[in-house]
Each structure stands twice: as C-alpha cells, then as structure tokens.
Automatic annotation (TrEMBL):
GO terms for molecular function: kinase activity; phosphotransferase activity, alcohol group as acceptor. Transmembrane segments: none annotated. This is L-xylulose kinase. Keywords: Kinase, Transferase. GO terms for biological process: carbohydrate metabolic process. Residues 258-446 form the Carbohydrate kinase FGGY C-terminal domain. The keyword Methyltransferase does not apply. Signal peptide: none annotated. It comes from the Bacteria. Belongs to the FGGY kinase family. Gene3D superfamilies: 3.30.420.40. It comes from Rhizobium johnstonii (strain DSM 114642 / LMG 32736 / 3841). Pfam families: FGGY_C, FGGY_N. Residues 4-248 form the Carbohydrate kinase FGGY N-terminal domain.
Length: 509
C-alpha cells in the first residue's frame, strides 16, 4: 500500500510523519534539536545534529507505521524558513546554522532601512529585508566573519539541508528561493538583488530552484542506512513551512487568510498578481503566476512556550512523567481566566515584533490578585492581538472573509474562539495534527504521480473542519482590549530603545 513521508523541522523539534495516501497519519516521531544561544540575539543549531535527529525520527516513524519503507512512494521536507544554513566548497557544514529567531543583523537592517536600500528592495524583491532574512545574515557574516564568508560554497534553508542529506543534491524550491533574491515580477533569481545587498560575489552560491513537487533526487545508500528508508526513494523539492502549513490546513487559497500560530506569527493569502507593501512580504507561491503575501513577525506561540518552560517547569516535568500534556494540565487555569474580567495585557515580543528589533515583551495591568491563569490568558490574547496587526494589514490589500487557523494552540477550542472574536471573522480549524508535514506530503504525492497537483487534497476537508464564528459581545470587548494593547505599544516605541540601552551588551547586534 503506498505511503508518503512528510518531514517537518521546526526551530526546536524535527519530526517525520508517515501518511496513507488518503491523508491519514499512520505514525509520527519527533526529536528535540538543541538551540544554542552563545550571546544575546544569536540563535543557532548544529547542522549535523539536526540531520542525525531527523534520521532517527524517520527510522522510528517507519517502525511505528507498521508498513515497510518500500511502501513510501515519495518524500518531501518542510522546515522553518529564513535563517541561513551554510556549506563550504567541499559541501560540508560551515559552522552552525543561524535560525530565523536570530536578530544579530539588526544594525544592518536598520542601516538599510535608513538608506534607499529598503525602498529598492521592496520594488525589486517584493519585501523589505528583515533581521533573519538570508540577505541580512549573509551581509552580517561578510562584515563580522569575513574568513567564513570567503569559504561559502552554497547557502540554503533548513529543509534544503535535509534534502541534501537525503539525496546529496543541493537545491531549493520556488517558495524558499523568494526569501531574498528573486525578482518579484519574474519570480526568478535576480543578480541585481545580490548586488543591492553587496552580495554579488555569492552568485555561485545560489541553490538551483525547482517546483515544490518536482522530483529532485533519490535517497542515497548512506541516507538509507541511517534512516531505514529504501535506497532510491524519490525526493521532491519541498517547500517553506508557512506555505506547507497553509496547504495542509486547507488554507492555501484565494479569499482566505491562513493564520499559522507557531513560533512566528504567520498570516498569508494568495493572489494572481504581485502586490507589494512594507507591511507584508510578497513571495512566490507553489506554482508560477501565484504570489503568497505574508505578514509576519517572530511573535507568536514561542512566547507561550517560553512561559511554560520558564514558569511551569514543575508541571511540565510531572505531566510528562504521568503521561499528561502540559497544555491539558493548564487548560482549566486558562479556561477559568477567560471567564473573568482582567486588566492583564501582554506584548509577545520576546524574540521580535512588528515594531522593530528594539521592542521587548512585557506585562501591563497586573495586580496582586491576578494568578498564573490570568497571565497565561494575557499571553494567548497578546499572541492573537499580534496576529490581528498582520491580518489587518493584509485586509488593506486583499479580499478575504474567512481565516484558517493552524498551529498547536488551534487544538484548544477556547483559543480558536478567541481568534474568531479578536479577528472578527469566522475561523476554521481542520482536524490535522500535522498540517505542515501533510502539506509537504501533498507535494511528495504530486511528484510521485499520486495526486494531480499539491492542491489535490484527497481528504473530505469539510467533514474534518470546525468553524468558530465571532460573538458580537466578545468581539466588542476584545476591540477595547486590542486598542489599549496597540496604544501601549505605540507609547513604548520611544521607550523600548531606552530599555535596551540598560544592557547594551545584550542589545548590540
């Protein structure tokens, strides 16, 4: 019986999911990958560790599926976008990968923003460069690590590194290629873009770009031995994880905004023509002639995860020992907090924000009568409010009247209802625990000839979808809270840099 393998590598966890061709997940395995933070704003990972962890997850998923590896008809990887994974001229890792939560290049981006580079970039590439864009990180390496810069043979994304480990072939796909160096109109690489950022000597390092569902290689003997895969299994190019999540959740369509509440606040919609604006990135869709406009910031559930890791460590440990999810353990506290009035507000800017690199996270309105549940509610509301900033921006340029929500928090019905009330539109959740991995698997199935194209989802998505509609009274209350949230942020714009200056060694880029 044919199966498909979708690999989904995030910023902390890498996973492998085996799917039946009807979309049923047969088995999933995951491994945590170490995050290194050698200094403030530097967030990295070891590339070899990532591959070893992913190979272990693939082997376990195959074992758990009860199906032989030879049943796998196609493989595709998706992973966190942006950041940078470097190979030297011998195709070996060139130091640690730099993750998309990294903000070391903030000073370079500020310099570009204050010059004409930003205006030229948005006109040419469809986006203003940001701190974790390949353009900014490569420029930082050029300035701060010139010897490393000279040794760059290729640069790629996270999923492209995994593809290389599987096949021995360097390359990327159209969605990932458009993170910095493509012409927004032609959707192809532009040497002018490299020139704009002072990176013209890296034209040789651009990875060839293919369609996301194009077979670009086959599993090598070495990779087969490590993973348990069958040697020669087709591997397709794969795609950027925000696109994969929208595809897997049924939100990759015109007239819909896909809201991905993951480490990043991802909000995206499709169009048949490029539309550029400083508030969103206009990047390549899966197929030529389709553009995916995404308004994003590194300010979503990474804040919730930080809260759990920092302030709920005992519950997490005890829960895992007893076989319970930390989310299930805390759900009663959160639900109770949603039922009572609260003045607590939280700006979810631990790792970045729509307000620039100087912004930082903070609670406002806390009183001695508030408990941890109130703080958790404020964190979740802050995440939803930040998504609304981005959704409202997209509403100014595109027509949509419904949202598709994906991400771990979408499993909580109360949170889904909150998003509907905050956004003021129906929010649909598809019962897909592994949306990004399934989006990758759809590309693998298309490449293998099982599906007509990546959007030919074999599932009856209507039957596995649940829609929450906004409640007028709650939406009105959230509107008041949201306006206070925005007013506080506006007032903090002049204060955040002063706060950062209190610890200059941590705020330096």
């Amino acid at each position: 019986m044919p199966t498909l393998l979708g690999i989904d590598s995030g910023l902390t966890v890498t996973k492998a999911v085996i799917f039946d061709i009807d979309g049923t997940p047969l088995a999933a395995a995951r491994r945590r990958v170490t995050q290194f933070i050698p200094k403030a704003r530097h967030i990295e990972r070891d590339m070899d560790e990532l591959w070893s962890a992913t190979a272990d997850a693939i082997r376990e998923a195959i074992s758990l599926s009860g199906r032989p590896a030879s049943d796998i008809e196609g493989i595709a990887a998706t992973a966190h976008g942006d950041g940078i994974y470097l190979l030297d001229h011998a195709q070996q890792p060139l130091g640690r990968a730099i993750l998309s939560l990294d903000s070391r290049a903030g000073a370079i981006v500020d310099r570009w923003t204050q010059s004409d580079v930003a205006d030229l970039a948005i006109e040419l590439t469809g986006q203003i460069p940001h701190v974790s864009a390949p353009s900014a990180l490569l420029a930082w390496i050029r300035e701060m690590e010139p010897e490393r810069y000279k040794r760059i043979g290729h640069f790629c994304s996270c999923k492209d590194w995994l593809r290389f480990c599987l096949t021995g072939i360097i390359g990327t796909d159209r969605t990932e290629a458009s993170t910095s160096f493509t012409n927004v109109k032609t959707q192809n690489y532009s040497e002018d873009a490299l020139q704009l950022f002072g990176l013209q000597d890296l034209v040789h390092a651009l990875p060839p770009a293919s369609r996301s569902d194009q077979i670009v290689g086959r599993v090598t003997r070495e990779a087969a031995q490590l993973t348990g895969l069958a040697e020669g299994t087709p591997v397709v190019a794969g795609l950027h994880d925000v696109t994969a999540s929208a595809l897997g959740a049924g939100g990759y369509a015109k007239g819909v905004v896909a809201v991905i509440a993951g480490t990043y606040s991802i909000n995206e919609t499709l169009s048949s023509e490029p539309r550029v604006d400083r508030r969103w990135f206009c990047r390549n869709g899966i197929a030529p002639g389709i553009w995916n406009s995404m308004s994003i910031s590194p300010a979503s559930t990474a804040n919730y995860d930080w809260f759990l890791a920092t302030l709920c460590a005992a519950e997490r440990t005890n829960g895992e020992v007893r076989g319970n999810s930390i989310h299930a353990l805390l759900a009663p506290e959160i639900d109770a907090a949603f039922e009572r009035p609260s003045t607590a507000l939280f700006h979810p800017y631990l790792f970045g924000s729509p307000y620039g690199a100087a912004a930082s996270a903070g609670f406002f309105g806390l009183g001695g009568w508030h408990d941890r549940g109130d703080m958790l509610r404020a964190v979740l509301e802050g995440i939803a409010f930040n998504h609304r900033i981005h959704v409202d921006a997209l509403r100014d340029g595109f027509a949509f009247d419904q949202a598709r929500l994906a991400g771990g928090v979408s499993r909580n019905p109360a949170v889904v209802q909150m998003f509907a009330d905050v956004l003021g539109m129906p929010v649909t959740v598809t019962e897909t625990d592994e949306a990004a991995a399934w989006g990758a698997a759809l590309c693998a199935g298309s490449g293998a000839g099982i599906f007509a194209d990546p959007q030919s989802d074999p599932r009856d998505t209507a039957s596995i979808a649940k829609t929450c509609r906004p409640d007028a009274a709650r939406s009105a209350d959230y509107e008041k809270r949201y306006q206070v949230f925005r007013d506080i942020a506006d007032a903090m714009i002049s204060l955040w840099p002063r706060i950062a200056a209190l610890a200059p060694e941590q705020s330096a880029n």
